[in-house]
Amino acid sequence: MALIPIVALALVIASVALRARRQGAPRPGTPRVSTLCWASLPALPLALAAAWCALGLYEGGPAELLALAAASLLAHGTALGRDALRARLDAWAQAGGVPLPLAHALLATVAVLACCALGLLALELPYNAEALGIAPWFALIEGTLILLALLALYFLAQRSGAGLALGVAACWLVGLAQFFVAAFKGTAILPNDLFALGTAAAVSGSYVYAVDGQVVLGLACVALAGGIASTAFRAPAPGGAATRARRARGVCANLAGGALAAGALALLVTVPSFTGTLGVGMDYWFTLDFYRQQGMLTTFVAIAQDMRIDVPEGYDEQDARALEAELASTYDETLGATPAREAARRQFSESAPSIVCVMNETFSDLSAFRGEAWGYAGTTALDGLAGTLARGRANVSVLGGGTCNSEFEFLTGVPLAYVGDGKYPYQIYDLTGTPSLARQLSELGYDTTAIHPNLASNWSRDEVYRTMGFDRFLSIDDFEGAPTFHSGVTDEATYDKVLELLRSEDAPQFVFDVTMQNHSAYDQGNIAPELLGGYSVDGFGAYDNGQLNEYLACIESSERALADFVAALAELDRPVVLVFFGDHQPYLSTALNGTLFPEEDRTSLEHNLRTHQTEYLVWANYDVSGHDGPVEADTSLPFLAASTLHAVGAPLTDFQRAALVAHEEMPSLSLVGVQDATGAWHPLDAADDLPARFDELARVTYLEFASKVE
């Protein structure tokens, strides 16, 4: 199939070369240099397509390549004919008494509108096979956004078609980025992803950037737009060459036109409510579906407008402070007054244990997806450990990515349910004055260390950990020569760092370890065959089963490393508490969910809960006073740290005490929903069904977090 773009590319190059030779001996009909430049542009998309084919990265069919070749040759011919078109336009205008500027403006208007339509297709086609099915109203909104952007570029480029061509190319690049994000993560690009470009680049090397026919169709729109944009030329100034003053006035007028278009664009994305006024819908569990149904830009702007944290209804700061104090007092009189808590408190005051928290990359138990049907017994390393304080499922707010949001919930105790979906607090908020487990323990005399064996800049961790009060951050720079597995430094290597800290420092340690080895993608083929389990799910193809086995091999490696780590901690002669949990499930669990539970409504709460559960363990290498056996209970990450500190007798903040009182009525709280004391789950928008503590904790959380970052 590579011959298709190669032949078309050869034709374009030969045509341009033949006409370029005429420049040496000009004669009537010889194209101008600018015309040759425009005529050369279609070579770029053809060369790109040829490279994809040659490298084996094209996974589409020949029809799309033929469409690209046809569009490129048509654009090439249009560009070559621009001089003749201009001459005919001038002759028509003069014969009809039409002012030349008006005639050229009419042609430019047609070019702008055509490029607007092509820009919309270039944006949508790469990731959206149903691009032509976008509802007309939403297509009009998106088209208007693109039109205003193209007008701004057109005028800023001094009414040159180059601005139009660049604008359409930019649309395609955005669509291409969305194509890859959808392919790798199964989700849409959200506004806060723009703050995470460095992180995305850092983990991008393990992916294979293959494209399909939809991407090539979008590229064909770019090629065609280049030909049309070449016809958007200005009329010559009256009376011959323009004077310097006239040129200056023209430049200023064009800049003013560009500023006006940019201003109109800014007003459109900020003034009307896309959800309230324009009717743009959004369900954060199905962002990609809504992008495809409503258009990427339309939905993206709607989400961007929703970035502010909602103020709880009836919120008053003084009332919130009084409520927090009341809840904290309730804790003191109930949970905090038990003999077990008092015994643990005395023990903690005498010998504060070191606290090690491991957030294990993508660690989850996929046996919840009818593992018995495909022979998977699940994770076992967390089961039956002597010294276990608590064990169960952790209900999380993210799936397939967004690790930093699980970190955020655990380290701050702030539920994302009160912050809002689609937000990455690490990227957009200054966390200096917000709740922080690291800062809290540092004030108790702990030495605090964060560990993540990847780039320090990922998710802005270098800055975030500093504002959270960590004393130090060990990043990839501290793991030179460390062993690797799958996607990075091994879990075991990070545990060795933890043990090194525990053995070398006398002060109590708080260590937060974010592992890396299990990170996607799961089609890397870099795990030894003898480590693969050979699992096969009916309804999965070879590719999906391959991903499943690669992922489970990573989890089994993590289990072995955890068992060794627990054994090493047990041998230490100092008290240590270990908190271990997974940050999220892999995105491939959505395929498992759909395949193994086909009878369920995929939009149902039950269906989505299954893909938003990981495992957690709280363990100690010493006998915790007041503890009479492991607690088997599900929880969620905002409550996990406070529950652990409560169990081991550590002092608690007012916010943590209030949260633990609320936790009694709602054991789990995530972006998926709320679990009440009976174990029943409710969606966040079911206000009448939510526990009373939900609204109370919302006000306290706004006081402790949102009011400090907005």
Q: How would you describe what is shown here?
A:
The protein has 710 residues and is of the alpha/beta class. The chain has two domains: 3-271, no CATH class; 319-528 and 560-600 and 614-709, 3-Layer(aba) Sandwich (Alkaline Phosphatase, subunit A). Strands 1, 2, 3, 4, 7, 8, 9, 10 and 11 form a nine-stranded mixed beta sheet that branches. A three-stranded antiparallel beta sheet has the order 12-13-14. A hairpin with a 2-residue loop joins strand 5 and strand 6. Helix 6 (100-124) packs antiparallel against helix 10 (213-229) and helix 21 packs parallel to helix 22. It is elongated and about 100 Å long. The model has no long low-confidence stretch (mean pLDDT 94).
Give the number of domains.
2
Q: How helix-rich are the residues, as a percent range? A: 40-55%
**What oligomeric state is this?**
single chain
Terminal Cα separation, in Å? 55 Å
CATH superfamily of the largest domain: Alkaline Phosphatase, subunit A
The counted number of beta strands is: 14
Percent strand equals: 5-15%
CATH fold-type name of the largest domain:
Alkaline Phosphatase, subunit A
Poorly predicted ranges: none
Average pLDDT score: 94
Rounded Rg: 30 Å
Structural class based on helices, strands and sheet pairing: alpha/beta
What coarse outline follows from CA principal-axis ratios? elongated
CATH architecture of the largest domain: 3-Layer(aba) Sandwich
Task: Enumerate how many helices there are, as a single number.
Answer: 27
Please outline the major beta sheet: 9 strands, mixed
What is the CATH class designation of the largest domain?
Alpha Beta
